[in-house]
């Protein structure tokens, strides 16, 4: 094990006591325990006096180091919660048959003092577009529901090398919401419909819907999502958890079902910023070749960001209000700004430029990129070997049409200009330029540490016939530019969570996470879902 891996873990454990005053995870609940140390009440989040809703990875590692918790106990607790709670929300497609053996191997390393890093023994759910050699990877489509891929995605190789327990696969919006003109987020032919844990007839948003809903319901410690534009941060906001879209290229896209190499990235999701950053420290870096994933400079820097959150005094944050998301969200942004100012931050209202042009150019560029990239991916899998064959598969399989029948985006992509076409290349060049300027110029003009905006509106009702109501512009500047963004719980509109989206300059992920940890501590906006069947007629939250 490399020395830097030990240093990263030691730093995480050493600062854990210093975080008690403000970081989620310190509100552990006592409970009467069964023989295994877990609470006897059905669906409980309490394990050996630990509240799984709020505990952080550094606290779990400290307990495992002391010997009063094992990865096996933690993994069993999450598997039990999946059995008892997931039927309400339908977020988990499958659990790994080797999850417990992975946990037992981690227990042995903990006993021998050979811990591989902060994620050793920590259960992780993967979105079902991330390749796993031992479980199906379907992107929600029956077309890929046969044999698993031959190899793991690079990020899965890193997670395994770091000792994480691959707990299973989360449901997702089929083909990451890039199939139909009016898709329904959280629905796939493989997994059916994922529901929002806060109000079950409301939508979980975005294609990483299962990952976010599972975290809100405390079915895993952390999860992996993917984003092209909004599909990590919107589910995080709408399900009241944390989601980080990394800078483009920070996490390898190798072995992840694509939409666009120019915008796609996998990223970490969790119930707090600390766990999000520690997970990013493991999955980030160049493609692996069997190396120790926890022993990189990126891991060390991100671990420091996770465990040493910056204060807010003197920080300059630009607030992009987006009143189009409704008066209730705007009122929440006003309250959020007041709380940040009370903590010493300067909040300046801003409007990043070029948004209308970005909205005009992004979709046609993605069509060309999707055709190129999905053909390459499908050629490596059993099943349809290219986009044309995939379109034909959907036409001839009625189960692919049980929520919505359309595949208009597939058909448009098939007819889109090639990525070698000068028309496409001009679009992508303009997109790259304007999206970067929209952030860089705004931050420079106001000397900002970050730009903040609402991540999402209150969750809309799920309706297959209508599709989503998800015109949410806040994710686009960071998504198109490849810059990092981070969604943190900001509060609620009635019963429904709303996130605060922070974005910053290229490869400023560690600084953004440190700032996010400070914002999270100040807002303290997380609360557990109540699994309400619905809301009274006429209410938004």
TrEMBL record:
Example GO molecular function term? Answer: amidase activity
Alphabetical list of Pfam families matching this protein: Amidase
- Keyword DNA repair part of the UniProt annotation: no
Q: What is its EC number?
A: 3.5.1.4
Q: Which enzyme type, at the first EC level?
A: hydrolase
Transmembrane regions listed in the UniProt entry: none
Keywords carried by this UniProt record: Hydrolase, Signal
Identify the stretch annotated as signal peptide in this record: 1-20
| Name assigned to this protein | Amidase
Q: Which organism is it from?
A: Streptomyces wedmorensis
